[in-house]
Amino acid sequence: AKRHGRNVARLFDESIDEEIRIRRRIEANLSQAIARDELGMTFQPIVANDTFEVVGFEALLRWTEESGPISPGVFIPIAEESNLIHELGDWVLAKSLEVLKEWPGQYVSVNFSPRQFRRHNFVGYVMEQVLRAGIAPQRLQIEITETAIFDDAERAAETLYRLRQMGFRIALDDFGTGYSSLYNIRKFALDSLKIDRGFIEGMGRERESAAIVHSIIHLGRALGLGVIAEGVETEMQVAMLRAAGASHLQGYLFSHPVNADGARALAHAGIIH
Ligand code: C2E
Ligand code: CA
Ligand code: CA
Ligand code: CA
């Protein structure tokens, strides 16, 4: 048994080593990804629940390294631990605002990591980018997670208030997966809650997920907020989300994330059938 334990410990060490190696490689290559032109933006439509009118697009970053694509779910957290996130984030925002100009009126919904959101003078930074691009603040939705705002709630509330005053839209992403206290939520100037895909996915299977989805929609409506359901893949989910009163939907059923050309076409079509 002792021997077995030692082997397990060694395997464990090796997998940690492997993880550290991968992490180092990603960090090293990611810092050159922009210069090497390996990054790309994709856009996924967000539609109104009743009409399927395309009201906006979420901007989702893609990185194709020499050896193939790497998921943002993997490299974003690594970038987030270093200053790389700022460089990446600057690129994402600039690109998104550029592509947005080709759409008739839709907004672009950009993900900002906690570290970006907490950076010194975030409000001034976003305003400057939007002014430089010649775009109305109403056409930029800022997606942040609970993690970004609940650590220093006081300061986050102030930042959100100022952003909202300037006309930006604010969506609280992955709602329900973090540690937001419902007590705090009313202090934040928000426009929408985004229900995490995990709950939508479980909705048809488990009573618990369905109950959570209903509660989030109910809460959002009671607070006068929009509620965006992400990861919608089936007609059945649409029917349930309609009945529950979600205001907006996003997911593969409507469209996968597409490149700038694809987004322009969808934006001009204006509706998804
Ligand atoms: P997220 O913000 O929750 O984005 C939604 C994710 O769900 C995206 O994954 C999207 O492609 C995927 N998705 C959308 N509809 C469906 C569906 O119907 N079914 C399934 N199975 N998946 C769907 P993606 O693009 O891999 O991004 C993963 C995460 O990486 C994002 O989660 C976000 O947290 C982060 N991320 C992506 N781009 C950026 C970025 O530019 N900046 C920052 N800070 N984070 C980003
Ligand atoms: Ca998001
Ligand atoms: Ca999300
Ligand atoms: Ca999510």
End-to-end gap: 62 Å
Tell me the radius of gyration: 20 Å
Mean pLDDT: 93
Beta-strand percentage? Answer: 15-25%
Strands, total number: 9
Could you say which structural class the secondary elements and strand pairing correspond to? Answer: alpha/beta
Organism: Sphingomonas jeddahensis
Domain EAL: 23-271
Protein name: Phytochrome-like protein cph2
Report on this model:
The longest helix has 32 residues, at 2-33. With 273 residues, the chain is of the alpha/beta class. Helix content is 51%, strand content 19%. An eight-stranded mixed beta barrel has the order 1-2-4-5-6-7-8-9, surrounded by four helices. The mean pLDDT is 93. The structure holds ligand C2E and calcium ion (CA) (3 copies). The site of ligand C2E has 22 residues, from strand 2, helix 2 and strand 6.
List descriptors:
273 residues, alpha/beta, eight-stranded mixed β-barrel, binds ligand C2E, binds calcium ion
Secondary-structure topology with pairs:
Layout: H1 2-33, E1 39-48, E2 54-65, E3 68-70, H2 72-80, H3 84-100, E4 107-111, H4 114-117, H5 122-133, E5 140-145, H6 146-150, H7 153-165, E6 169-175, H8 182-185, E7 192-195, H9 197-202, H10 207-222, E8 226-229, H11 235-244, E9 248-249, H12 260-269
Parallel strand pairs: 2-4, 4-5, 5-6, 6-7, 7-8, 8-9
Antiparallel strand pairs: 1-2, 1-9, 2-3
Helix pairs in contact: 2-3
One calcium ion is lined by residues 58, 111, 143, 173.
Protein name: Phytochrome-like protein cph2
Domain EAL: 23-271
Organism: Sphingomonas jeddahensis
